[in-house]
Receptor-like serine/threonine-protein kinase (Triticum aestivum), 804 residues
Amino acid sequence: MEIHSTSLLLLNLIHLFLRISAREFLSPGSSLSVEDSSDVLHSPDGTFTCGFNNISGSAFVFSIWFSNTAHEKTVVWSANHLHPVYSWGSIVMLYADGGMVVKDYNGQAVWETNVSSSSKAEQVQLLDTGNLIMKGQGDIILWQSFDSPTDTLLPNQNITSATKLVSANRLLVPGRYSFHFDDQHLLTLFYDQTDISFIYWPDPNKNIWEKQRSSFNTTTIGVLDSSGYFLGSDNLTFKATDWGLKVMRRLTLNYDGNLRLYSLNKSDGRWSVTWMAYPRTCSIRGLCGMNGICVYTPRPACACAPGHEIIDQRDRSKGCRPKFNLSCDGQEMFVKLHNTDFRGNDQSSSTSVSFHTCKKICLNNCNCKGFSYWQGSGSCFPKSSLVGGVTSLGLGRSIYLKLPKTQVSESSIPHSQPFGHRYAPNCSAKNKIFTTDFLDQPKSSQSGSHPQYLYLYVFLAAIFCVEVIFVAFGCWFVLRREGKQLTGVWPAEVGYEMITNHFRRYTYKELQRATRKFKDQIGCGASGIVYKGVLKDKRVVAVKRLADINQGEEEFQHELSVIGKIYHMNLVRVWGFCSDGPHRILVLEYVENASLDKTLFSSKAPQILLEWNQRFKVALGVAKGLAYLHHECLEWVIHCDLKPENILLDENLEPKITDFGLAKLLNRGGSNKNVSRVRGTRGYIAPEWVSGHPITAKVDVYSFGVVLLELLKGARVSDWASNANEEVETVLGRVVRMLTENLMLELEGSQQLWVADFIDLRLNSQFDNLQARMMVKLAVSCVEEDGRKRPTMENVVQMLLSVA
Ligand SMILES: *[C@@H]1O[C@H](CO)[C@@H](O)[C@H](O)[C@H]1NC(C)=O
Ligand SMILES: *[C@@H]1O[C@H](CO)[C@@H](O)[C@H](O)[C@H]1NC(C)=O
Ligand SMILES: *[C@@H]1O[C@H](CO)[C@@H](O)[C@H](O)[C@H]1NC(C)=O
Ligand SMILES: *[C@@H]1O[C@H](CO)[C@@H](O)[C@H](O)[C@H]1NC(C)=O
Ligand SMILES: *[C@@H]1O[C@H](CO)[C@@H](O)[C@H](O)[C@H]1NC(C)=O
Ligand SMILES: *[C@@H]1O[C@H](CO)[C@@H](O)[C@H](O)[C@H]1NC(C)=O
Ligand SMILES: *[C@@H]1O[C@H](CO)[C@@H](O)[C@H](O)[C@H]1NC(C)=O
Ligand SMILES: *[C@@H]1O[C@H](CO)[C@@H](O)[C@H](O)[C@H]1NC(C)=O
């Protein structure tokens, strides 16, 4: 008790100390240092904090953030985001002559306020509004952060013709979107890329009255007031849905180009969207870049137009490039994309023309990339480039793409399927549409080549070689976190919630609670560690933390939404998943008894000896489970790692296969060869896999063959070796040859007792001869070298049933 209260007192003291050490202002000559995370300025009411913020392990940016938000810091302003400084030796300092300077570890100034040297700074202070101000003599404001916003506007912060918001990702690297006054004095959203730039909001096709703006006011000012009401001098008005005082808000231009107003829930520290410029994200022009098409999957994602390929997997806004060259010899053909349109970039527009005429216009123009034709009005829009593609049910328009005369498969045409599963497993190998999430996509491992970071790394490399590794590691860590979802970002997207109906997404917190902070470990495998947990609804579950998932959020979620639909009594049910920051976790059905290997091979007491009937039941159940995986969707779900460890036994000793679908998760988009590097367990992998041949469902048939042999013998193949040097493949080959010979001899009529010799001695010859022979026969044919000669799992089930 005493120890407890003492430590409590100590804690309080530390707290108090921290609060004292956290300053309220900076006076000339003093500085904040990067090393001490408590060396920060607080606003008087504590809402905002200002100091160095690490965007990765050792890259720091002088920023202002909300002090009390859940998860990561919500940065509202930053100074040196283009030049992060090192985690050691860097400072921000106020000079008496009115300059505030951010210095890197080597003394280099990476950022400074431009204040005329004649003015004398008295102090720098963070206000309750989140404004960092530098006061001179007589309380005049020499400089304020409100005058140079980054991607966020706070209440009472003016946006003027001199300021603009620029979208940024989590590493604070500026994106391509900006929000500022245009030359008509209208508040506007711009898209800027080297080869193309345009206005996308307000809709440039509307006239000034339709926009309900006024372009006559040269005052150019806009401000969000304390109650969540925005008023611009151009009559731009909007208000938060939770309009009212005493709510903390921010207006942020997100990385996906949408302008969103957020409100903070003080009790749980989360942000929710209370207004946004585009309720439907795909409508943001340029989101998917040149030749890209925004689709609802149901979550907004980017796909390429047929005949095009992704330029940069990690940055979909770079768009897609054509895989063909148009010869312009009049031999081209047109591919129709239903409910799809590319906005803008019309070469001309004509109405009341026939489809044929429209087609001709485009065919005769070498620069025409395709045309949009509106059936009803006969409007024809030939396109000079394909930007702002969106496919959406009910769009009612079609675009006709000009392609060279080639075969275009239906499956390469993107469709939005907010309610269906167009991108769910389609076994056809041709279904190659690749979609990815674009909200705040990381620049991934290439961030090192990003100029800003290059600067940092080159510098550090020269001096602190070892630290570089840490920086890189830190970045890698951040980048892995990048996929993280912003809560409430997609409230208005149709169908988004639908994925999560039966199959739920869990938060990391929930799972932490369910597993009592991952206490009760019940298993550990190559794909991750498994813990036992109890959900709120009292359901007992197995919670598996996946190791090494290098996948983006979108893909992971997509893959999981497929796995979540798989339901068979011989497959472990996947109840849900968690994809929270770096965490990728599966929530699985809890299966009472341990995995097959523990029961079958363990010599430790108390041992359940699997009786013959039970072994046969296990063989049949596993076969059924695999047949379901292979058959339900042709060859979509290949297990790729079937082994006794992945076969769980329930209370009735009914087998349940686990870890299916993970091969896909670990390998999405990679070549099959890569699978072999990552997956598969020695002794159970088919020979074609090792030799790098294409992987088909027959690799599972091979593994099943090995498991059958082990079920019969009650020992691991790797333990059958006659001497320590014998390779497991050699042993298997020897045993299979022996069994094959015996089967052949049997055909010639010589009855032998070889089956009894082969079968687990612990069974004391208590087995069904017919079933045993069938299992041997099947096992031998399953482990055929040539995958084509192996039976399908469906055949196997039938054969087993024939002797059941
Ligand atoms: C920043 O530093 C804190 C504490 O040192 C650490 O917990 C956090 O993960 C770091 N953040 C990033 C993005 O590296
Ligand atoms: C200060 O002035 C320099 C040179 O004109 C400019 O490059 C820099 O961006 C300015 N800094 C700020 C914070 O405005
Ligand atoms: C915003 O503009 C108004 C009107 O011009 C002005 O009174 C106010 O001081 C400005 N606010 C800030 C923080 O600059
Ligand atoms: C200003 O906006 C309001 C509503 O947003 C609209 O009713 C009004 O007509 C607009 N005024 C002008 C001059 O466009
Ligand atoms: C221009 O905008 C300011 C600020 O919103 C407003 O006070 C003023 O009345 C506007 N002037 C005109 C002519 O609309
Ligand atoms: C704020 O969060 C709490 C806890 O999650 C929740 O109960 C409450 O309804 C939320 N309030 C608002 C206004 O969303
Ligand atoms: C298109 O033409 C360029 C040069 O004219 C060539 O390098 C490229 O390989 C061609 N692409 C295809 C797909 O034929
Ligand atoms: C899979 O794609 C093919 C075209 O490649 C299509 O014919 C088939 O209907 C699709 N199957 C499903 C289940 O969507």
Notes: Residues 612-632 form the longest helix (21 residues).
